[in-house]
């Protein structure tokens, strides 16, 4: 899939405070910048100080009010500390985007128990930790958005991705189940996949900068894709919860019809049957 997608206008979320994990490079970097350009106050976290500094340069150049924090999402205490700092500074936390991931591509024969645990602890443990850390705050302030990152590995299996596919499938289960409990607190929990070819997670900024122009052009612009997370966060939490979206589809729709487009499942996801099945389940679900 080509990296080129039609640019969408920037929706405004000037009243929102946003946390994006794993935001030092790649998609997380793009999501953080998209929120900043939309007027949000943004905290970005990662475990790489050098790449966090580069992210900070971009946010500063955009005029975003932001802060960066070195933090490991696998550490619950660290997540709680980040949430507390955000609330102490800005008084609330409206959106948490859990983008952080650890995904070495290795066969099952080559994986170690330690590597397995680390992937699970970051990918799905991080989502739990971030959600747990912000839960009381979102309930107290009357709601919010928790958004994970989906991929093709959320619905399919791939060689050398046993742990990664397990994480992505697990994230969808977490979202489906918790959305039922979160509804009473006006908290929405969803995922968004890129829906387009993006720079592989393992590629660092240094490797990105030395990649050929042709290769870089094949990757979708992460800032443009990030506008899909902004679009979802701009919806009232009661509108969508428990669903899987795709960023490129949303951005194409917004570019064509504007941010207040008439909703249709095919306009927001590459997996409309999955979306409809979830709609049916939530509509008929009985406590």
Characteristic key phrases:
single chain, Rossmann fold, alpha/beta, seven-stranded parallel sheet, 11 helices, 287 residues
Summary, kept brief:
The protein is α/β, with parallel strands linked by helices.
Describe the structure.
With 287 residues, the chain is of the alpha/beta class. It has a single domain (17-284), classed as NAD(P)-binding Rossmann-like Domain (Rossmann fold, 3-Layer(aba) Sandwich). The chain has eleven helices and seven strands. Strands 3-2-1-4-5-6-7 form a seven-stranded parallel β-sheet, with helices on both faces. Helix 1 runs parallel beside helix 2 (49-62) and helix 9 (222-233) crosses helix 10 (247-257). The longest helix is centred in the middle third of the chain and has 21 residues, at 162-182.
Radius of gyration: 18 Å
User: What's the CATH architecture name?
Assistant: 3-Layer(aba) Sandwich
- Secondary-structure element string: EHEHEHEHHEHEHHHEHH
Tally the structural domains.
Answer: 1
Secondary structure tally, helices: 11
Question: How does the SSE layout of this entry go?
Answer:
Layout: E1 17-21, H1 26-37, E2 41-46, H2 49-62, E3 66-70, H3 76-90, E4 95-98, H4 113-123, H5 125-141, E5 144-149, H6 162-182, E6 187-193, H7 205-210, H8 213-217, H9 222-233, E7 244-246, H10 247-257, H11 272-284
Parallel strand pairs: 1-2, 1-4, 2-3, 4-5, 5-6, 6-7
